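Weekly puzzle thread! Below is a chain. First person to post its structure in token form gets bragging rights.
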Amino acid sequence: MQIFKVGGVVRDRLLGIPVTDVDRVVVGATTEEMLAQGFRPVGADFPVFLHPKTGEEYALARTERKSGRGYGGFTFHASPDVTLEEDLIRRDLTINAMAEDDQQNLTDPYHGQRDLEARILRHVSPAFAEDPLRVLRVARFAARYASLGFTVAPETLELMRQLSESGELQALTAERSWKEISRALIEDQPQVFIQVLRDCGALKELMPEVDALFGVPQPEVHHPEIDTGLHTLSVLEQSALHKQPLTVRWACLLHDLGKGLTPEEEWPRHIAHEHTGLKLIKAVNERFKAPKDCQELALLVGKYHTHCHRALELKASTLLELLQSFDVYRRPQRFEEFIGACEMDARGRKGLEQRSYPQADYLRGAAQAARVVAVQPLLEKGFKGPELGEALKRERLKALKAYKDKASA
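Winning reply:
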């Protein structure tokens, strides 16, 4: 029995960046031998075990063969005669197909170290094209390592293009797709993930609503970058630079989908795109079964982001409607994330990345003015039920009018 560290732990050690997960492969062992040593089995599809003391994962060396469509369409073979090289060749990228023993002696049959040094993301073998999930994985690695200068090898991008055109991406489950998408969006350069997907034709298959934004013009006076797709990439980039959470980044990706529905004869204006885009945002949310908080914020940002940009011009009654829509009294964090997404939208414009966004603090102040309106005096006056709600609304409106007057003084 021989045990090797494999994949990301080797890759990141060689890159000199912190290692998070440690995967190990066991060569020359049987399931019975692992059980006899106290390892606990966990893998339903192939033999993976947890160490009896550390709880870390150990997988038996295995080969795999394509036997059906999609991510799960594989037959696995694990036995003591499977070599380390045979196990490594089934992996996606050369930089993930290296192994080392406890003395850090490197096994690198597919030149992963060379590709690390050249900053290339390259597939290990033609079997790469058997797993559609790898299209998303490579795009995610491109986003993760873009700051280090990594790019996708042309031949790998071509394989990804073939996979995109084959229809295999449609066989991916929502859960598997979302796992890759969500991980990619919280990388340092999530816009690279979207760009790589577009470069290989996968964006058109997975998110046609986002792909449709490229080539759609906007008024240059407001959007010097003009192209709506490029604007979306810039907004995503800003969301990462400002360390926004996943909910905000997802909303940033989807906020302008309505512009893809604007008839060409109306370009570059996009009247009511906030409302036309809601059905598209809902469709993308449901396609990937995004978490509820991501779904809700994306819809709210899509509907109200222009309200935020015009916050200083809004009437007190419109301000109150906006605050009510977000339930700022019980869910203040969601409104804060909305403001964050809108600020990223404003900053995601060519040459305007550093422009101040006074709307953010203005809306925070408005929310606070509405929140501090006390219920108790109204109860003491005898208001209850629907009448109490209306009285509270009137008092909040009064508070917002006073806030507006003070802000404009």
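Puzzle host: Confirmed. Bonus trivia for everyone else. The chain has 20 helices and eleven strands.
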